[in-house]
Recover the amino acids of this structure.
């Protein structure tokens, strides 16, 4: 399962109902959102706290969304800014990208579309990770799949790796985390790089 609770998302929209909807949606997906209808207050908060992602409405009466993005990027250039707009057009999309946004979503948006945009931004930054139990399970599955595709028994893999069949079984079942040393021995015995066991996890 992907872990997101450590990811703080700034949601800035002059429509309180959109703030509430987006905030609840992100909370349901495990994110830690903070919502603001006043962009100036949001910017002040970003100066005091660290946020990884910002969802910013393009047209707000108090301040233009492009200016908000620019100010947020000055506070933290690593922050991923996603612009939301009910008036999508090529010029505004180009300008927001030029000024520092990483994505552009047209309103009304589907919930999955919004979450996917936030997930993509976080994946580019490498800040979504898989929890330990799930990671062990996925690595174990991958090892077992490679072993079976080569018609190797646990005993044969044990002979190649100097790990006991019990240790290998625990790793394949995801019940124990394999050390780097053990992963190196297993991957080498299967004719793989360690990275091949871990890619995409």
């Amino acid at each position: 399962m992907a872990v997101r609770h450590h990811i703080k998302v700034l949601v800035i929209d002059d429509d309180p109902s959109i703030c509430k909807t987006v905030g609840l949606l992100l909370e349901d997906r495990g994110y830690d959102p903070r919502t603001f209808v006043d962009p100036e207050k949001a910017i002040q908060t970003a100066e005091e706290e660290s946020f990884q992602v910002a969802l910013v409405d393009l047209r707000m009466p108090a301040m233009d969304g492009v200016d908000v993005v620019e100010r947020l990027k000055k506070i933290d250039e690593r922050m991923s800014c996603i612009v939301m707009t009910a008036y999508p057009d090529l010029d505004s999309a180009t300008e927001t990208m030029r000024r520092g946004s990483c994505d552009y979503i047209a309103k009304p948006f589907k919930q999955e579309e919004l979450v996917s945009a936030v997930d993509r931004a976080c994946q580019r930054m490498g800040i979504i990770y898989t929890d330990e139990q799930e990671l062990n399970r996925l690595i174990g599955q991958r090892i077992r799949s490679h072993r079976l595709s080569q018609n190797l028994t646990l005993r044969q893999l044990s002979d190649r790796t100097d790990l006991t069949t019990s240790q290998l079984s625990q790793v394949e079942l995801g019940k124990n985390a394999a050390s780097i040393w053990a992963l190196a021995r297993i991957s080498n015995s299967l004719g793989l790089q360690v990275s091949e066991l871990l890619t995409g996890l």
Observations:
- The mean pLDDT is 88.
- Residues 10 and 54 are 4 Å apart (CA to CA).
- DSSP finds ten helices and seven strands in the chain.
- The first helix runs from residue 16 to 28.
